[in-house]
From TrEMBL:
Coiled coil: none annotated. GO terms for biological process: RNA modification. InterPro entries: PPR_At4g14850-like_plant (IPR046960), PPR_rpt (IPR002885), TPR-like_helical_dom_sf (IPR011990). Pfam families: PPR. It comes from the Eukaryota. This is Pentatricopeptide repeat-containing protein.
Length: 115
């Protein structure tokens, strides 16, 4: 669904899954990022508040969550997810820097790069 720009259907399907794993959650975050509306932001906040702390050690999950928050315009939640991440890989940093840039916060992207 996501590849075919049918993110709404992917989100509907996600809502039917009782116990999603890391892959399903990553795909859900990607679908929310593709749509990037306030409705998806509400879903992101709801799901991210319910996932286990172990998900924050998976850089794929964290990268997709940060990307989704940033594309929905919620820099604060993206920063909180970044801070909560236990494995800050290059893609995790990249998602933060790209998110800062798309939200017109270029200086914050530069500052993060310089860390």
């Amino acid at each position: 669904f996501i590849i075919n720009n049918s993110s709404k259907q992917a989100i509907d399907l996600f809502n039917e899954i009782k116990d999603p794993n890391e892959i399903i959650i990553t795909l859900f975050f990607n679908a929310c990022a593709q749509l990037g509306t306030g409705k998806e932001l509400i879903l992101l906040k709801s799901i991210s508040s319910k996932i286990s702390n172990s998900f924050y050690s998976d850089p794929y999950v964290v990268t997709s969550l940060i990307d989704a928050f940033m594309k929905c315009g919620d820099v604060t939640s993206a920063e909180a997810s970044f801070d909560r991440s236990t494995k800050k890989t290059t893609p995790v940093y990249g998602a933060m820097m790209k998110g800062f840039i798309i939200n017109n916060l270029s200086q914050q992207a530069i500052d993060l790069f310089n860390e």
